[in-house]
Amino acid sequence: MKFQNLQEIKSKALTILDDNARNYYCSGACDEVTLSANQMAYQNIELLFRVMVDVSRIDTSVDILGTRLSMPVLIAPTAFHGLAHQDKELATARAAKKRGCLFINSTLSNTAVEDIGPIAPFWFQLYVYRDRVLTKELIERAEAAGATAVVLTVDAPVLGLRETDSRKSFVLPSHLTCANLESYNFTEIYQADDGSGLANHVGKLHDASLTWKDIEWMRSISKLPIIVKGVVHPEDARIATESGASGIVVSNHGGRQLDTSISTIEALQRISQTFDSKHLLLVDGGIRRGTDIVKALAAGADAVLIGRPVLWGLTVGGQSGVEKVLETLRKEFENAMALCGVTSIDKISKDLLVKKAG
Prior knowledge:
Blueprint: H1 6-16, H2 19-26, H3 33-43, E1 45-47, E2 62-64, E3 67-69, E4 73-75, H4 88-98, E5 102-105, H5 113-116, E6 122-126, H6 132-145, E7 150-153, H7 163-167, H8 197-205, H9 213-221, E8 226-231, H10 234-242, E9 247-250, H11 264-272, E10 280-284, H12 290-298, E11 303-306, H13 308-340, E12 353-355
Parallel strand pairs: 4-5, 4-11, 5-6, 6-7, 7-8, 8-9, 9-10, 10-11
Antiparallel strand pairs: 1-12, 2-3
Helix pairs in contact: 1-13, 4-13, 12-13
């Protein structure tokens, strides 16, 4: 695949996807201010690089909760990979394993956790449903399938105002199912004739009463580490770890929930000032270049999550397309490290960062 960067892969993907999938993958909440801000915020940070350092050998590897990764990149949980490619999440998981990254399987996957486990190491992203028996079963199924952590999404007690989804009446095509929920007969909720099928799902099924006390309930069900995804406030980061979480993902849901919320790299910089380094600190949203990964790590993250670019790669070439996305990022990241004068992850520090004037 002769693509130079992720933007070129995205451009190609947009010519392949049908309107239903393209609108769903691309859109954000309301005026999509946060959707744009996530990327723009990285561009407003400059790198104060060092020179005259031996960079003939660069080590991009990192240990995340006991798993050695080729680079500090995880594949973010995103729904409905079947909209992009017939091999769905299986292609994504295989690509992650091939490139030494870690795949996070979404609750709203078109592929069941039982089918992911034999393919690749993975974490399981969880939405908490009003039916706590169902939620408990999802956790237990994920653990039995080989998941090594649960990623609890906490920024969607209600769905953000995703006007594009509603205007275009997003539906899950009839040939696809919410595979992790198929036995619970929820798929028909996505076949709504009016408005967004996803909005129907969240409105009818998600538990809007979720609180920090529920982490203790989750810990009583499973011994898997719990990573809380959807945190932007330093106080919430503190409470998450004090409640028993092993780490957090600084995330605004890719700009799909509360529009005009703080960009994730800005939130990360605030959180990292007081965050307990014994816990895992991850970030997603707007990462499109290897230099963005350097900036996120310099701001305090242990690793980053990549969402939409994986979907673009999946659309363009299935497993090989996702591999192309990951390999492109790895090469850019390695190049950026060398040109910053750092040879390993532990040498990336906040001294590299300068906020652009004006």
